[in-house]
Amino acid sequence: MINILNNKINLTCIKIAVVVVTIAFVGACAEEDNSFSDSVLDTSTPVLTDLDNYIRSNYVSKYNIDVLYEWDENVVDNNRYLFPPLEEKVQPVLEVVEKIWLDSYTEIGGDDFVKLVAPRQLLLVGGRNYNQSGTILLGLAEGGKRITLFETDLVDLTDKENITRFLSTIQHEYCHILNQTIPFDEDGYGEITPSEYTAQWFNTSIADARELGFISDYARSSVIEDFAEMVNYMLINSNEEYNALIDAITDEEARENIRAKEAIVADYFLKQWAIDIYELQEVTARNTQEVIN
Predict the structure, then answer these.
(1) Which of 38, 115, 255, 257, CA to CA, is 20 to 30 A from 88?
(2) Are 90 and 152 in contact (CB under 8 A)?
(3) Which residues lie closer than 8 Å to 61 by C-beta, 6 or more apart?
(4) Which residues of the chain carry a pLDDT beneath 50?
(5) pLDDT tens, residue by residue, 115-135
(6) Residue 268 phi, psi dihedral angles, 5° rounding
(7) DSSP string, the chain
(8) Taking the domains of the chain in order of start, what are their residue ranges?
(9) pLDDT confidence of residue 42
(10) Who's near 100: CB < 8 A, 6+ residues apart?
């Protein structure tokens, strides 16, 4: 009887111990769960500025392009002296980019053209990006996913030459993205002026480069850059301005070579993208003039 009683007491003690352990465990879990509320991660909804709302409406929602303008050391070359743009400069510059680049391609290529074939990000940098050679890097196209635009703080909305210089970056870099999506005939293009490409392109003036059959000095750096520079110069100039550049070349063979390159560019845009580059040129020139006015 005593053994039975002792067994019952022991069982009761075990049950009490189990309950105590369970309560302690639940309490520990509850205490551990509460620790998440003290997380260092900011899970609050960010407050959007007027600029952020503009970017969401005019770039993210409309074209599926995000704009990076705040400092992020992970997306810039930390070996260069680079800094973010002044915030008051960002929207005026983006409005120019939208009008001259995005609206022009949309008008000729259709509402979904840029949305489907575009960089997913535009990165804006405030000042110039100097190379060791003494040249200035105006922009970058990184894997077709991001275009970096330098000199954002230096854009003058009243100066056509200044705006043209800035927009030449995006026209050039966007051509690279088009070429990365659908390649052009590099071999055929490269046969036009095969012996004149050079890594020391910066030792040639633009005028001298044109007398060699290149639309610009940088076009001499490679076949790919030559093609992009042809597109660039066709789109930062009206048709009349562009033809005047070619007509000013004194070497007849050089003029013919540039026209041959132009023909390949026009054929590429028409056959691969269903875009008449001369119509695009006209619309871009009109939109540029509207920005200046």
Answers:
(1) 115
(2) yes
(3) none
(4) 1-9, 11-32, 36
(5) 899 889 998 988 776 766 767
(6) -60, -50
(7) -HHHHHHHHHHHHHHHHHHHHHHHHHHHHHHHHHGGGG-SS--SPPPP-HHHHHHIIIIIHHHS-EEE-S--TTSS-TTS---PPPHHHHHHHHHHHIIIIIHHHHHHH-TTHHHHSS-SEEEE-SS-EE-TTS-EE-EEEETTTEEEE--GGG--TT-HHHHHHHHHHHHHHHHHHHHHHS---HHHHHTSSTT---TTGGGS-HHHHHTTT-SSSGGGG-HHHHHHHHHHHHHSS-HHHHHHHHHT---HHHHHHHHHHHHHHHHHHHHHH---HHHHHHHHHHHHHHHH-
(8) 1-28, 50-292
(9) 56
(10) 163, 167, 284, 287, 288, 291
Give the other-Cβ count within 10 Å of 167's Cβ: 23
Query: Taking the domain 50-292, which CATH number applies?
Result: 3.40.390.70
Q: Measure the CA–CA gap between 281 and 242, rounded to whole angstroms.
A: 10
Side chain identity at 142, as an amino acid letter?
E
Query: Measured between alpha carbons, how far is residue 107 from residues 2, 81, 99, 228 in Å?
Result: 98, 38, 11, 21
User: How far apart are the C-alpha atoms of 209 and 206, rounded to whole Å?
Assistant: 5
Dihedral sign from CA coordinates of 89, 92, 97, 102: positive
Give the pairing type, strands 146-149 and 121-124.
Answer: parallel
**Tokens representing 29?**
């879990």
